[in-house]
Structure prediction request, 141 residues.
Amino acid sequence: QILPRLYHENVIDHYNNPRNVGSFDKNDPNVGTGLVGAPACGDVMKLQIKIDDESGKIVDACFKTFGCGSAIASSSVATEWVKGKSMEEVVTIKNTEIAKHLALPPVKLHCSMLAEDAIKAAVKDVEAKRAKLNGSSNAAP
Ligand code: FES
Ligand code: FES
Prediction:
């Protein structure tokens, strides 16, 4: 549609039909929120993950991105890829893998970087919350 033809069909699909757009309650102890910005263009991405209490696996993910089509598509792919995985696994997702999946041109690499950073930030956030919770519940009186 409005995207130039150099974009791969995966990016157009994720741009036109982004998966998992939305928000979770950021105060939920099992929700991790990653909020990152790209200094180069000012675009902002919020990616959230929801963790299963017992297994520690990511059961759900969502995002809101104020940015270009490539950033939106990258967040959409990222939310699809993290579901069902462990936190250890998802922090190894590389922006280059996302960029390759979407066939992003080199000038759009930083857009996929936002997604990698947002995943890592979301994991950090939920790990910190869980550590805090465990810490306080185990605290001696
Ligand atoms: Fe959606 Fe691959 S086309 S994650
Ligand atoms: Fe900056 Fe895409 S142009 S995130």
